Amino acid sequence: MEGGNHSVLSEFVLLGFTHSWEIQLVLLVFSSVLYVASMTAYILIMFSVTTDSHLHTPMYFLLASLSFIDLGVCSISGPKMIYDLFRKHKLISFGSCIAQIFFIHFLGLTEMVLLMAMACDRYVAICKPLHYLTIMSPRMCVLFTAADWAFGISHSLFQIVLIINLPFCGLNIIDSFYCDLPRLLRLACTDTYRLQLIVIANNVLLTVVSFIALLTGYIFILFTIWKHFSGGAPKALSTLSTHITVVLLFFVPIMFIYTWPHPNSQMDKFLALSDAVLTPFLNPVIYTFRNKKIKAAIKRSFRQLVIFRKIS
Fold first, then answer.
1. Which residues of 112-149 are buried (b: 16+ CB within 10 A; e: fewer)?
2. Residue 7: how many CB atoms within 10 A of its CB?
């Protein structure tokens, strides 16, 4: 690095999706509607689980925790992306870029661990129903939550340590709508080949191992249901199909983003958009429409809000 010929970068230019105003307008409407709908759905789910005594069970506690995390996930890059669709010059400061990377990895791994906790919950409920309340006690739910956050923070701090002291003094263009760790590493004014390999290996390993572990767990649960078929099997299968759908929506885009051989392609941007906007919208829709208790609780919450408004 020739420090005398370069100045230290204080901001980056985001290229976004496209230079076409018509496509940007479509994306603006699409993203804004999905973002508002997602935020509303997550708040309703958390409010319903908190206030409705019928939902004070481990499964719904974990669902409310997932909603809280997803609320954060869709707020990391969503509002910035929507705001940038209005602007010709899309800029992000170095500090904001680092913050985005931190929260993307923090909430990403936290959700990954939480999905595994939810799989454990379903395993105990279906395979060991008589011991469910003993195993999935409030203390165990709190431990699951603490583990989620601990793993998420430690993983994210590890990513930040890799890049926080890197020199950025030349090219400052990021061909995306948010700060992405592999892209940022390629902009450093030093050889980051080894760091790129470490980041890719670390994220791919965590994602692929977690995904395989979850699929293996759900296959084992499905085999248990098939082997010991009972009257409650259709309900269990319905719940499992919901969980498996959410797992696929979460993991598939992430695995493609980190393993796609052409990181500058439009497919990479589409998958990133899906992960930032579409998946957070689909998750509450899937849980709400496939769960009668959640739908009933939301209706009761609406009635309570209407009554409270009339009284006040």
1. bbbbbbbbbbbbbbbeeeeebeeebeeebbeebbeebb
2. 8
Neighbours of 102 (CB within 10 A): 19
Q: How far apart are CA 217 and CA 226, in angstroms?
A: 14
- Residues in the chain with pLDDT < 50? 1-7
d(CA 13, CA 93): 9
Q: Counting beta carbons within 10 angstroms of the beta carbon of residue 151, is it exposed (0 to 12), middle (13 to 18) or buried (19 or more)?
A: middle
Handedness of CA 6, 7, 12, 13 (dihedral sign): negative
* Adjacent-strand bridge partners of 310: none
Distance, in Å, from the CA atom of 267 to the CA atom of 17, rounded to the nearest integer, reads 11
Crossing angle of helices 94-127 and 233-259, in 10° steps, is: 150
Sequence letter at residue 302:
F
Strand partners, 14: 174
Sign of CA pseudo-dihedral 130, 134, 138, 140: negative
Report the alpha-carbon distance of residue 166 to residue 171 in Å, rounded. Answer: 14
Residues 6+ apart with CB under 8 A from 33: none
Question: What is the signed CA dihedral for 105, 109, 115, 120, rounded to 10 degrees?
Answer: -170
Helices 138-163 and 58-76, packing angle to 10 deg: 20
CB burial string 230-244: b at 16+ within 10 A, e below: eeeeeebeebbebbb
* DSSP secondary structure of 230-264: -TTHHHHHHHHHHHHHHHHHHHHHHHHHHH-S-TT
Burial label, 4 (beta-carbon count in 10 A; 0-12, 13-18, 19+): exposed
Cα–Cα dist 2/6, whole Å: 7
> For the whole prediction, is pTM greater than 0.90?
no
pLDDT value of position 2: 42
* Strand duo 11-14 + 173-174: pairing: parallel
